[in-house]
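Re: beginner question about structure tokens

> Can someone show what the tokenized structure looks like for a real chain? I only ever see the sequence side.

Sure, here's an example I had lying around. Input first:
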Amino acid sequence: MKQTSIYRLILPVMALLLGVSCSDWTETENIESTVLKPWEQDPALWADYTAALRAYKASAHYLSYVRLHNSPSPASSEQDFMRCLPDSLDIVALTNADNFSAYDTEDMATMREKGTRVLYQVDYAARKAEFSGEAALKTYLDGVIAAVKANGMGGYSFTADPLDAAATAAIVATLSAAKGDGQLLVLEGNPLLVSEADRAKLDYVVLDTEKAENTTEVRLQVLNATTYAGIAADRLLLAAEVDAPLQDADRTEYAAVEAMARCVVEFGPLAGFAAYNIAGDYYHAEMNYQTIRTAIQTLNPSK
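And the corresponding structure tokens:
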């Protein structure tokens, strides 16, 4: 009986002591950590690197162009910001430019340092219902022009509605007149939607080949643009959804962005390629980031 009583007294004490020990082992401790950005680690090396980037982008090479839905609310991860884009990209069109954020403002300095042109996208084809008339469209475009100037952006991209030639003409007239030195005006879509007289005001046309299922369709769109619309081959870019497939003439399936990069050479040479919907799985080592880099290196292997 005495032995049993002793055990009853000892066991709670041991449990208490073990609890104290475990809490000591598992107690969290704050550890200070400083993450240095590349330009903070070695400013001189970063300056040399960005100078080389700007020289590359000023040289003759195939262009790489992406759409980015910048600064969504709420943001999901770094994939939503310009700073996550490959350094060798030439042009990025912001599809959420109306909501240009403080983070975008911060990233713009780095984009300019890398020589990447950032465009304000006017997606008229998708947003036509928001502009009830000529005055509403003019007011919106005036705001776009002011934002491009205030944020030091590299120009404009736009889409056109097939049933609204007057609005397309107004967009081209307004944005081409506002374009400054070094800025671009890019149509994303069919160049036949722009009047023949206005096509010369476009710096580049990104064909809507992201809808194509095979390279034969892509070839026909290139011929349509160069023959009927009279767009020079060196002003054409081919678009692809970053996670879509594309079949070649033998019905072999490839990643659309990589296959489109090869089409740029085979059907031209054209100006370059454009990748859409790049945010999904962007950080996966074998997914979108690597796909875009592979396409860039396919077209510019010695750069």
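Each token stands for a local structural state, so reading them left to right follows the chain. The radius of gyration is 27 Å.
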